Amino acid sequence: YSVAVRRMAQRVFFVSSTGRVTYGGRYAGASRSVGMVVRTLNLGLQTDMAVQIYGGLEVGGNATVTGMDEYPSNWANCPAASGSQKAVVAKDTSLVYTRGGGQIVGNPAETQDTSLNAQDFLQYGDVSFDELKALAEKVYPAGVTVNNTAPALTQDGRCDKSVRENWGAPTDPTSPCHFYFPIIYAQGNLTISSSSSGQGILLVEGDLKIAGGFQFNGLVIVKGTFETGSGNAQVNGSVIVYSGGSLGVSTISDLTGTPIVSLGTCAIKRAEEYNTAVSRAIPLSTRAWIDLSGAGTSSN
């Protein structure tokens, strides 16, 4: 058999396959061709905001939330940064405030969008939160504390994706795990107390707390609240916080210490493009395939 792929539009492709009988007998030399129209999966991720939050957000200590598009200095081939974008998009900005040396910096710093609903936090283009968590490569039980993450290699030097604490190697461009962006899922509350780093798509069913100097590059989606403690944690990409779908005071996310949450369009795009679970083609929902032989059309 032989397969050919032709681009029809930006995200749409035509895949044709021709099979031929190569052994002797009654059907020797016969062939059959079929074609299918497919499109690449679309996560529909926002790339113009550092934080999107349903409930309240308090930025204290020396914490910073910035819409200045950035990416790690040792990353190569990132697209040009988009400049200063939105820092915080909230359903109600009266619940977003700073105290002490906390800063929210962006263009604008705070944006109110009263139309935000569950769909904006739990559905991302073609994929829902539940569908993403079903694709997770790393799964943690509720209430766990992750104390260290580090890239792991197989005996022959390849990136060992089977190790749960292998969250990629964002700080080492020479590592075989540098372009490994896994989907990580916590079944409930998750605490990360570490000075290591990771990358990919982090899904948290409950509340997320980051302490120490942990650095994460990519997309963070939290169903509960987001909290930082002492230390200089960093998140580069985008953080989506559903706050349990509540505007109550009990669902206020609290950033303290000296963390930096910054928009990173390169990190967001890499989290999608370098994960085979989400960067794949799917058939159109209707009339996706055609029998080219029956139509009297060659696939060549």
Quick overview:
The protein has 300 residues and is mainly beta.
Describe this structure in words.
This protein is mainly beta. It contains 3 helices and 25 strands. Strands 4, 6, 7, 9, 10, 13, 15, 17, 19, 21 and 23 form an 11-stranded parallel beta sheet that branches. Strands 8-5-22-20-18-16-14 form a 7-stranded parallel beta sheet, with no helix packed on it. Strand 11 and strand 12 (127-128) form a beta hairpin. It is elongated. It starts with a strand and ends in a 9-residue tail after the last strand. The mean pLDDT is 93.
Can you count the beta strands?
25
Major sheet attributes:
11 strands, parallel
**H-E string:** EEEEEEEEEEHEEHEEEEEEEEEEEHEE
- Number of helix segments? 3
Low-confidence regions? none
Overall shape: it is elongated
Kindly state the percentage of residues in helix: under 10%
Overall mean pLDDT: 93
Strand fraction: 35-45%
Distance between the first and last residues' Cα: 12 Å
Backbone structural class:
mainly beta
Radius of gyration: 23 Å
Features:
7% helix, mainly beta, 7-stranded parallel sheet, 11-stranded parallel sheet, 300 residues
Spell out the blueprint of helices and strands.
Blueprint: E1 2-7, E2 12-20, E3 31-40, E4 49-53, E5 57-59, E6 64-66, E7 86-90, E8 96-98, E9 103-105, E10 110-112, H1 118-122, E11 123-124, E12 127-128, H2 129-134, E13 138-140, E14 144-146, E15 183-186, E16 190-193, E17 197-204, E18 208-211, E19 215-222, E20 226-228, E21 234-241, E22 253-255, E23 260-263, H3 265-273, E24 281-283, E25 289-291
Parallel strand pairs: 4-7, 4-21, 5-8, 5-22, 6-9, 6-23, 7-10, 13-15, 14-16, 15-17, 16-18, 17-19, 18-20, 19-21, 20-22, 21-23
Antiparallel strand pairs: 1-2, 2-3, 3-24, 3-25, 11-12
